[in-house]
Amino acid sequence: MTKKEQSALPPAGRPAPAPTPAQLFVAFATIAGCGFGGVLAWSRRIIVQQRGWLSPEEFNQQLALCQVLPGGNILNFAVMYGCRCAGLAGSLAAVLGLLGPPVALMIVAGMLYRGYGDVPALHGAFASLAAAAAGLLLATAAQMIVASVKDRLRIEHVVAALTFLAVGVLRWPQLSAIAVIAPLGIGLAWWRRR
């Protein structure tokens, strides 16, 4: 983190003030403009590291809720976080910031691709972008794991490992994995709180 980014953060122990709709629009437009191949990495970087609006743990918790809801994770995140900060105006500002730049870019890119899509050099460029996006995703996953685990492993980490095993290794359909693992996770959480 640069000195400029550090000076923009609130003093340690105090949360940053809730962003305004205009600040939400600018932040999510920046996220969308930087997020080639996915915006999760940039969302975390801007919201947690640069602006200090959420702690790493709060970001993980809100993202986890967004992942179980239908729709795009970061779009759900924009709606929920925007509403949390500034109500309906905040949600609209965050969503418009998140969707506006990519829509405009894709319209222009579609027009250019139609005219120049057969150029061989473009195929290598697209492959490079895909590799960079995969690297960003892995780096963000590592940062989220560190923030989640902190000092010790907990029941939720076991549930996450079981989910990875079921879907990633055993290739269960996602709905089957959710049908089996969600009740297990709820039961384990209930048992832990007793």
Query: Structural class of the secondary elements?
Result: mainly alpha
Radius of gyration: 19 Å
Mean pLDDT: 84
Strand portion:
under 5%
| Low-confidence runs of at least 5 consecutive residues | none
> Sheet bearing the most strands, described?
none
Given the C-alpha coordinates, what overall shape results? globular
Distance between the ends = 41 Å
Our count of domains comes out at 2
Percent helix, as a range, is over 70%
Task: Report what the structure shows.
The chain has 194 residues and is an all-alpha fold. It folds into two domains: 18-115 and 141-150, no CATH class; 152-194. It has helices at 3-8, 21-34, 40-50, 56-68, 73-116, 120-149, 155-169, 174-193. The radius of gyration is 19 Å and the shape is globular. It starts with a helix and ends with a helix.
